[in-house]
Amino acid sequence: MSKASTHPKPDRPLPSVQEWKKIVAPHTKASPAKATWQVINSLGSYVALWVAMYFTLSISYWLTFALALLAGAILVRVFIIFHDCGHGSFYKSRRANTILGFISGVFTFTPYSHWKWEHSVHHSASGDLDRRGTGDVWTMTVAEYLASSRWKRFTYRMVRNPFILFVIAPPLLFVIRERFSSPGAKRQQRKSIWQMNLAVGLLAAALISIYGLLPYLLIQVTTICIASISGVWLFYVQHQFEGVYWEREDDWDFTSAALEGSSFYKLPKVLQWFSGNIGYHHIHHLSSRIPNYNLEACHKSHEIFQNVEPLTFLRGFKSLGFRLWDEKERELVSFKGIKGNVRSAATAS
């Protein structure tokens, strides 16, 4: 694989923690007006689409399905609001973030407190090879893969297959996986799981009584599939791209992990809106206290952010070929380049 990177290291040294904290500080201030407008145009639009779909059932299921596709796209934006509440950045009030986080969590099938805990681990360990495994995509190094048993290699190949990773797994993640707590979860996080399960169940029962079972399933399955597949892709491409930063814990640096280990996924404006500006992921990982509605302004505020090479929408699909991290070459690679080594390892085992 070519060493040329779509996300090259900056020409100038990265800013110190004191420098970038001063730069981002003005953008960490939550705006009640912007936040409330986003609630209206996101959660409000999502609820309005559900109401509209009720009336389309008597006209055409195809029309209902079309509106469900749009609702799924809006649900991605609802999840970004949920995400910001988890970081305590959406509103100034912690209570407001908790309440809105729970409500948006019901729509997205995601337990607020439990997800908040897992996601904080992801932010503290992103780009650290020695702290993989919580809130991230399973990624093995070439050496780990070659040293694994045939069964583990087979399992890993299945998990990293694009069809499974981006089509099968996402709905299962939100519908089934989020119904259970992770190892290490504390009592508060486990409690949030059951609270969310109850809330999701009650909402589903209410909607089934209004829409009927089959129409409800048509709408809910469509929206959750569109939202989850889009969300998993966004998360994947924000941390699995050419030129990404990964280091062992002793050499790991927070600023480098943020600006070089998280992509600036430059999307067309309409997709940027639906994805809640989360393409400015390098900014988000540098300071999770910046609400999504301030990310673009922060990116434009200083050259250190603009020096980050954007990952374009089309170029992002190149990430589909990445499977393993090569520690020697310091790059993500596909399975093709290590076939000979795999045969050697299999013979040795």
Detail the topology: elements first, then pairings.
Elements: H1 17-24, H2 32-56, H3 61-86, H4 94-108, H5 112-125, E1 140-141, H6 142-147, H7 150-159, H8 162-175, H9 187-211, H10 213-237, H11 254-259, E2 265-266, H12 269-274, H13 281-286, H14 295-301, H15 303-306, E3 311-312, E4 324-326, E5 331-333, H16 339-348
Parallel strand pairs: 1-4, 2-3
Antiparallel strand pairs: 4-5
Task: Walk me through the structure.
By secondary structure, the chain is mainly alpha-helical. The chain contains 16 helices and 5 strands. Strands 1-4-5 form a 3-stranded mixed beta sheet. A two-stranded parallel ribbon has the order 2-3. Helix 9 packs across helix 10. The radius of gyration is 21 Å and the shape is globular.
Largest sheet, order of strands side by side?
1-4-5
| Radius of gyration, taken over Cα atoms and rounded to an integer in Å | 21 Å
**What's the total count of β strands?**
5
Number of helical regions: 16
Structural class: mainly alpha
Number of domains: 1
> What is the H-and-E element order?
HHHHHEHHHHHHEHHHHEEEH
Shape: globular
The level of helicity is 55-70%
Q: Ranges with pLDDT <50 over ≥5 residues?
A: 1-8
How far is the N terminus from the C terminus? 28 Å
Average pLDDT reading: 92
β-strand amount: under 5%
The biggest beta sheet reads: 3 strands, mixed
